[in-house]
Amino acid sequence: MHPTGLRRSQSPNKRRRVMNEEKGDGGGSQQASSPSASASASASAAHAVVVPAVPAADVATDSGDALPIAEKRDEILKAVEENQVVILMGETGSGKTTQVPIYLHHAGYTSKGVIAITQPRRVAAITVAHRVAQELSSQVGDLVGYSVRFEDVTSAATKIRFATDGFLLRDCVRDGDFSRYSVLILDEAHERTLATDMLFGLVKRLLVAGKRPQLRVIVMSATLDPSKYGGFFRSAGVVPLFGGARGRGAGGVGCVRIVRIPGRQHPVEIFHTPAAEEDYVEAASITVMQLHVEQPPGDILVFLPGQDDIEALQQLLEDKRVKLDRLRRHPSPSDPLPPSWQSSSLDMLICPIYAALPVDQQVEAFRPTPPHTRKVVLATNIAETSITLPGIRYVVDSGKVKLTTFNPRTGVEMLLRQDVSKAAAMQRSGRAGREAPGQAYRLFTEADSQGLADQTPPEITRADLAQIVLQMRAYGISNEESFPFLDAPKEGALDKAVKMLQDLGALDNRGLTDLGHRLSGLPVVPMHGRLLLDSMEFGCLEHMLSIVALLSTENVWHHTLTSERKADKERRKRVSTNFRRLAHPDGDHLTLLKAYHRWNEVSDKVGFCKEHGINHHALVRATKIREQLQGLLVRLLGDVDMAAHTQAAVGKDEQWVSIKQCLAKAFFLNAAKLMPPTRKYRTEYGRQEVHVHPTSVLVERQSLPQWVVYNDFFQTGVGKKLYIKTVTAVEGEWLVQFAPAKFTAAYVKD
Ligand code: CDP
Ligand code: MG
């Protein structure tokens, strides 16, 4: 460790790899053993066109003409004209997402209907909508709009609609033929999210049925294996319908066309750590500082699995930056800086970017880097392919990603931190070489990189399918097994989902129940939907609206995993003292509600949040979500008299009881029973032994309640312990009363 605490990083492994998009598939890489090999690789490949390193502000005015996609414009339009399905493959940043809708608009497709472009991530949908609106000199919500869960910024004038795949999927329950759209663009297909996969199946069914011969479908992807999508749409029964007879391109024109956009990837040198890193956040901070003081100008992009790690790294880097500035200004003989570190004088600007970050802060990462400054962007895998940040020359990759993982045996879905796939690691490294040759520093060993899976398995093989099955039923698909899946779900996963919906009362032998219909109309998971619908009977509708809205935002409390790191000890102490004043001893749902009410009452909301370790933006967002949910309920159930369904104000004992009862009724599938004499619980569904997460108010209690219900179930990376989080005490007898099929009086008492 260097005395400044700015330890020099382990010297990067000198074995190099050169990324070169032209050299192979799957983001192709080529082993090269010397720097000269890397130079010759870059010289020999088709890199003649060098994308100039222009700041975003300039890019904004050149309307995409300089992008690699520009030379394919006519080919793309012709392909779309002649084929019902076009598959567009092109490196990240080549201009697919922003340019294709513009081409189609100018070619007249918006006069026949709306162009929809799906994005797996809301951040991407929003930022790209802004970008395209700007290129078309329009305001977001006008010609160009976006629709994400809880936020629909479109109007009657909107002709180019960016939407999350989840939004479009829910929307098509109402409009199964996509009748308002002239073109559907399924973007980021390689991500293979559950919703995009479902849209694939629905679109294929629609095309097979021949209901929309004029509809055009474009599949866009960054990876290089179009055959899978091509084969899917070309497969049995599809071809004749929009090939010869009915298709406009009769005379041998195929129904599916593949268009490739040439890559302009510059070579990227890849370094691995010589030994495995135990703490990748710490390792990332060291690597970033070292790059910052020793390397020529160019922005740094760091990939981390989630918001908690991003916040932790931001804190570490801020501390180190302050220390470095101080030592540059006041050199200390006892703590000398290496000469090379003194000579560099760039300032450091740290920009986090992740889904839950408010949009106005997300755009920071897209702004041109100010002079004499190096931007350090801390991102989740959102920056892997769905957004392109200008100016990046260095990539630091933790090698980790958070993925939902569902175990059909236990019926439990968890968000797990996992190793990235080889394809994802190549994509991440490739971000360094978009504008000029770059460098990628991987915080894992060369040997570990060889052991990575080739591809991330599609989400449909990993996720809880309950919500999807509910939507399929609402859409009128009663036999999921016959659905044209691009990849089939895991054995038993569909049955498990059906069973869970039956337990919840959403399905019975005849199909979707009334409750099921209502649940399918709410953009929340079925159990949260039940909380809302059940709350009327318990007289706590207003409060449940708040609770569900709060559960639908991310990380209300700042003291998440971040606070477990040593660096945050002081902050944790202060925050937890204040937090205790807000805590309700019976549980986290109640505590959330209490905090939200106090926040609504106080005038200095930002100050209140700081003092209590609350994420102010999360509460602002919760307020918006709450309004949306309320509107949806009204639409679903007719005029709902909120007050009539809310009998007691916050703070009254009856009100806490009614909320806990409602939780017991809606969340009985997430009940867990204490296992004395330990402080562990056993979940009812899946029978797993779990710990209450240290952030829960319950852990403060001397004696724990015999029964609880929980919102989240997960495993931590370290120690692989299983935890339940956002937990509230309930009475065993309520479980018997509300879910008699599952709980007997004798069982809950014993
Ligand atoms: O979809 P694809 O990855 O092929 O590229 P794109 O998202 O259309 O991005 C094309 C270009 O627009 C890139 O140079 C981006 O840096 C730029 N862009 C931007 O500056 N700001 C945005 N919000 C979106 C794109
Ligand atoms: Mg894109």
TrEMBL record:
One of its GO terms (biological process) is positive regulation of transcription by RNA polymerase I. One of its GO terms (molecular function) is RNA helicase activity. It comes from the Eukaryota. It catalyses: ATP + H2O = ADP + phosphate + H(+). PROSITE patterns: DEAH_ATP_HELICASE, HELICASE_ATP_BIND_1, HELICASE_CTER. InterPro entries: AAA+_ATPase, DEAD-box_helicase_OB_fold, DEAD/DEAH_box_helicase_dom, DNA/RNA_helicase_DEAH_CS, HA2_WH, Helicase-assoc_dom, Helicase_ATP-bd, Helicase_C-like. Residues 1-40 are annotated as: Disordered. CDD domains: SF2_C_RHA (cd18791). Pfam families: DEAD (PF00270), HA2_C (PF21010), Helicase_C (PF00271), OB_NTP_bind (PF07717), WHD_HA2 (PF04408). Residues 77-242 form the Helicase ATP-binding domain. The keyword Nucleotide-binding applies. Keywords: ATP-binding, Helicase, Hydrolase, Nucleotide-binding. The keyword Methyltransferase does not apply. Its EC number is 3.6.4.13. Residues 287-476 form the Helicase C-terminal domain. One of its GO terms (cellular component) is nucleolus. PANTHER family: ATP-DEPENDENT RNA HELICASE, ATP-DEPENDENT RNA HELICASE DHX33. Belongs to the DEAD box helicase family. DEAH subfamily. This is RNA helicase. It comes from Vitrella brassicaformis (strain CCMP3155).
